[in-house]
Amino acid sequence: MSGRLTVIGLGPGNADQVTPEATRAVAEASYFYGYKPYLDRLELRSDQTRIASDNREELARSNEALAKAAEGHNVAVVSGGDPGVFAMAAAVCEAIEAGPAEWRDIDLAVVPGVTAMLAVAARIGAPLGHDFCAISLSDNLKPWDLIELRLLAAAGAGFVIALYNPISKARPWQLGRAFECLKAILPGTTPVIFGRAAGRPDERIEVYLLANADASKADMATCIIIGSPETRIIKRGERPVLVYTPRSASGSKK
Q1: In this structure, are strands 204-209 and 107-111 parallel, antiparallel, or unpaired?
Q2: What whole-number distance in Å separates Cα of residue 76 and Cα of residue 97?
Q3: Tens of pLDDT along 90-143?
Q4: Distance in Å from the first CA to the final CA of the chain
Q5: What is the average pLDDT across 41-69?
């Protein structure tokens, strides 16, 4: 007997940014697998069970959840942000591909959520108003040389770049190195947005220029958006600045 597995995106942390679809999926599931801080955001009933695991145990978590669903249960795997953006949906798909044939018969659904770059962008204006890309700076699952190659290619092509997983205690130098790479291509006046915990009580949104962007101001709760040469800052007196990237592009670098 095959059950159901739903991969649920809980958004960036503000309860108002959890979608109605995600709320319904939580109400319907019986077993919840996820990183403990994400599971702690759920208000579960007495008949619902949470199974927490560490942040870097995505594949093991997926295997456990799929095995439980294969027994006929309604299972949820929870993610912060959107589960398809550097998160659990890919790990679940990877587990299904490598796992037993019966896992391919499980009823699988992915419920989208508000991802960090969208929450940060909404707080500051419209920095993603034109073409953009997202790059994770974590080199746990890919080599740093590949990350640098992608950073240089994206900056050279004029993309706004959203950086996920910018820095941690185990990876203290990558963000500083990323800024060095980008400074070789982008103007020093390029806006850089540090968006920490967007939508939560401890939110901090700060705007710098690439020339003086300081990697030490970021942590793992920070999503960083680096503008393109087209991206602009609008000063508004006493009000916070707006940062936006025009809908059109000249194709030239400033």
Answers
A1: unpaired
A2: 19
A3: 999 999 999 999 999 999 999 999 999 999 999 999 999 999 999 999 999 999
A4: 61
A5: 96
DSSP string, the chain: ---EEEEEE-BTS-GGGS-HHHHHHHHH-SEEEEEHHHHTT----TT-EEEEE-TT-HHHHHHHHHHHHHTT-EEEEEESB-TTSSSHHHHHHHHHHHS-GGGGGSEEEEE----HHHHHHHHHEETTSS-EEEEE---SSS-HHHHHHHHHHHHHTT-EEEEES---SS--SHHHHHHHHHHTTS-TT-EEEEEESTTSTT-EEEEEEGGG--GGG--TTEEEEE--TT-EEEEETTEEEEEE--SS--S---
Token look-up 């503008």 returns 227
CA distance 85 to 209: 26
Could you identify the residue written with the tokens 């995505």?
58
How would residue 240 be classed by pLDDT, with cut points 50, 70 and 90? Answer: very high
Query: Is the pLDDT score of 162 beyond 70?
Result: yes
Query: What is the reported pTM?
Result: 0.94
Tell me the two tokens of residue 134: 């997202």
